[in-house]
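Hi V.,

You were right to ask for the full record rather than a summary. Here it is.
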Amino acid sequence: MAEATLFRGATVYDGTGADPVRADLLVRDGRVAAIGEGARAGADGAEVVDAGGLALMPGIVDLHTHYDAQLTWDPGCSPSPALGVTTAVIGNCGFGIAPCPPALRDTMLRNLSVVEGMDLGALRTGTRWEFETFAGYLDLLRRLGPSLNVAVFAGHSAIRTAVMGEDASLRIEPTAAELAAMVAQVRDAMAAGAIGFASSFSPNHSGWGGAPMPSTIATDAELHAMLEPMREAGRGVFMSATGSRATPEYMEDVAARTGRPAFISTVLAMYSDSAPTRGLAMYDRCAEATDRGHEVRIQASCQPLTFDFDLHTPYVWYPLPSFAPVKAAAGDAEALARIYADPSFREAFRADLRSPPSGVIFTGDWTQVAVAIASDARRDLQDRTIASLAAEAGVDPIDWLFDFGLAERLGARFAGRFFNNRDEGVAPLITHRAGVITLSDAGAHLGYLCDAGFGLHLLGHWARETGTFTLQEAVRRLTSHPADAYRIPGRGRIVAGAAADLLLFDPATVGISRLRAAHDLPGGARRLVRDPVGVHGTWVNGTRTFDGTTILGHAAGRGPGAVLDRFSA
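Predicted structure:
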């Protein structure tokens, strides 16, 4: 790796929102050594990158990823380096893999495979269990050397499972000894360098066999006890997949109790045709809480939320009561076929959609669900909505869906376009002062989506194409803004002395490709990925991690990323 790199003639966006400047930039020993005059003077022996006509910005800070298991077999964190990301936060929603006693490893992976849409075979084959504690997990990441800078949440469901075992998804009240042990685990994680504490109350978060993820059944008293170490430490952030239970007012109470910022992740805050004003109202309530001195923000997605799924694992409907037997079937094709053919199941599904529970992804609009992949004989149906196909056949959409799925032997795939599907509805959300743009879910839902390129989408679509942001403001919202919100020091800005996390791109073309399938998970399992458009390179701590074509390996198999364990108050 080069000890020094000179970027010649770049248009530098420094991450603060300031106007760009055309300048040379010198990186030496992992840090920005000089900008403008003096850069060339100190560039003896440096690798030269011709950046004429290109923009140079700080690397993207991705606050919402799920690389917890993948990092143990792929420290390169594919595909994020290719998509401009240089810092990632993992353990979101409380669904990490540490701490974990050996006897509970498969329990942890089985739950993770369902709640985050991961291939169980790949998880079992690839996950390296060279740790039991949270601190041991951080040590493993340091030994492996990630290609990104990585910060890790202490996770509610992970800790509850480690302490309560299989009961974590079944028993609401822990014993006094169990609660004390869980609080001690949070305290240990904070001492080891956790960025904060993460949890979930979302009804969409089910684990293996349809059991609820552990944190979703926890009481408020348990949550408050587990947040106490963060209050004691006087640092850290809290994030939760909130569902309808943890309202902005609930999260304001958490922020008031702990003195720490609280971040909401929920589809309820996204734009939806069925509730077009709901999301914006949530943002306004969070801004009002912050004005009262209790910092509450929403993790904002700048992309349409599109789910690719099939009838083996129709997780978009799992929160509906009628799908309890589907979840219990755990992908067994014969059992699923019997369920889907049963008129009583179909009627129960219809009844659920007439009065859907709060917070569910799908509320019955069949114009939002289309055939994505069908057999060769039915390929003419691809990209057509269930609503149009059912109307053409003169049948109920639910009957058409399951009759078609059974005829395809459950092999057809569907695309659900449920949230953030209108620019005019999304723009007020992503520009709102209560939002932090992130929510990529990188590393998760690999068979259904890949939103790891959210930053390139913001630069291309929302800055260049729609003009919703100036380019310098879009850069700020991807770099210093999320770094500051999560109290991550020394990241997100191009300034002399700062860590050289950099993204070189062409503003005229930057964006992301369409989804493509790759069979590169452990055991050859399939995932969906996106490729960058207009990206010429990514550097982490001064070392190139992506060259415009390939995510690069490094000496001794180690990447240049740091395991971040010191955060601002």
